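Trying the structure run again after the queue cleared.
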Amino acid sequence: MALAALALAACGDGERTFSAQELVDEANANDAGLELGDALETSREGAEVSEVTFVEAGEAHDDEIAQHEHGGGTLTITTDAEAGLAEYERCESAATLLCFRASNAVLFFEASLDPADRTRLEDALRAMASEE
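Done. Tokens:
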């Protein structure tokens, strides 16, 4: 049962792209509650993949954060928004994944993602889209 789809992408040549940290920082500025994890090896050319988890709302990011993490997934950063869209479409084809896209960034989570985490992420991406 797939996909929660939110796409944040401006039209035209001046389309914004994100690094992994920029996407997490901007989403967190809108209360997403994401924590960027380690980079993962990938054979996908032109893509950087990192672990990403949700942390409890309001928790400080310190050495004990691992005790509060839940809802892990991955964040793929592509070279541009067009490649991001292709990656998002690939994600959508998987029946057990929830997919979220912001320009060149695609977040992948299991369909069993906690509803509160899903709502926080959806709200954060909507807020980011409204800032464009």
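The chain has a mean pLDDT of 82. Worth checking whether this holds up in the mutant runs.
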